[in-house]
Amino acid sequence: MFAGLPELGISNGEDLKETLTNCTEPLKAIDQFQMENGILLPTLQSALPFLDLHGTPRLEFHQSVFDELRDKLMERVATIAEGKEEDRYGKLEELLEKSFPLVKMPSIQPVVMQVLKHLPKVPEKKLKLVMADKELYKVCAVEVKRQIWQDNQALFGDEVSPLLKQYIVEKEAALFSSDLSILHNFFSPSPKTRRQGEVVLKLTQMIGKNVKLYDMVLQFLRTLFLRTRNVHYCTLRAELLMSLHDLDISEICSVDPCHKFTWCLDACIREKFVDGKRARELQGFLDGVKKGQEQVLGDLSMILCDPFACNTLVLSIMRNLQELLSQDSLPRDSPDLMLLLRMLSLGQGAWDMIDSQVFKEPRLVRTVDHLSYVNKLADLEVVTRFLPAMMSVVVDDHTFTVEQKLPSEEKSSLSYPTTLPETFNRYLQENRVACEMGLYYVLHIAKLRNKNALQRLLPGLVETYNDMAFGDIFLHLLTGHLTLLSDEFGSEEFCSVVFDGFLLTSFSSKENVHRHTLRMLLHLHHKVLPSYMETLTKTLEPPKQSSEPVKELYTQLTEKLEAQKKSPPPLEETPSLDLGLHPVTVPTTASTPTTPL
């Protein structure tokens, strides 16, 4: 407990023991030891008997004086460090040399740690001693740990790894949340709110102003993204940079070439829309990548691969298409749409770019018009073939709607189409940018409560690029959107399309689909046709090898069904809805659809 005192020429318990062992008059030896090792203040000696008269033990007195002096010393250390004297760090290093031998003493340790904390460069020898001792490493300040970590990537990785795992667990938990709502979903929290999460704040604190540590974290995120393809690591990459931006850590923000791009995109994510002005800013950043600096495209693609960025881009594309439709304009004639597609394509190709280490944005040869911003021949076809096919689906729906409003004598025998254009299906299966837009179009149709269009589209999602329609993010959004059509679940035809035609086609091979289906039924079971619900209950019973979350959800569902039999639930009101996509009002002509996209 008192190791280190002899090194400083101060007697400890062993010295007292030896003195008492060899002396002939113990009381005099004790008095002498107290005189030599007590507080060296002559006027104090005459005052100490007064404490004895009040029954105050000497230990209590000395401890209170010690605590007071220690606090004063720690305050003085902070004052010296914050001062402007040229030799301030020299003074602290001198104090460190004197106090470090006592670092294992609990009462002195806070002083040593305070000195270490305020030294911008702790002597290498002291850092190694702290790192080698688990107890010291555990209690030292993060400022000291940063100096240790910057030269010990493996140790830093051990510290960061649990936080990264925690982050992914939290994101996945949000996707499987028991809440099912179109108004409060995975994308509802603002960027600023998300950056207040425990993991982001801890990582921000661990990095401080240390560029080397920041680079290490980014490398961890790239490696994990490559290993797992988990897009939540892309979200963390953007959130971490913006968290440092919020704290005005210019030492890092000024050297990260993605900073201004991420800052601008963050504002778009907050608004859930990329307006014309910000679109031009983002375009300027992309066009400004100089020869020899192409590697920055890897980080930009990761930032654009963030689901929150992707969500904003596709919502903006949908709104842009809506405006083009109302103006009788072609997609290829919109520079803003071309840029949005360019960024969406760059984000969707993030994994391939980082994996191949080919940091080149695939694009057509530059021409004088804005088609130079469409990526690759395949993505040019997204504009010239896929989008027209998607627009034909919109026109079919509009034609049928107008037909239903005609007087009976003017109606034709037109029935609602049940199949999708072959081109539409093919691009959903072969092109990830087209697939992303197709999925969001399905969500948009669900927002409009368009049952006919939804029944036509859902079966087409069984086969999509890389099974994107069965990804957690889309299923999380779709199940929330389907709550708007809750009354339709009383129809066997609608249930058959949603379940038999889509969800049940893969639930046995994809456990996440099983979970999302059960999540939805927990909220909508009382709306589902009873005979169909009975069949679903049997079909969705988890096999023995299922995970605990699936079994728990199924148990909750069966309990609710039992409770429902005893006491039917009251009628629920349909929640109010803000679609977030505002229709553009234009003069109606014979060629202009009046319903929004």
UniProtKB/TrEMBL annotation:
Ranges where the record places region Disordered: 559-597
InterPro entries referenced in this protein's UniProt entry, alphabetically: COBRA1
Cellular component GO terms held in the UniProt record: NELF complex
Pfam families: COBRA1
Any one GO BP annotation for this protein: negative regulation of transcription elongation by RNA polymerase II
Superkingdom assignment: Eukaryota
Compositional bias segments (type: Low complexity): 583-597
Protein name, entry field: Negative elongation factor complex member B
Gene that encodes it: NELFB
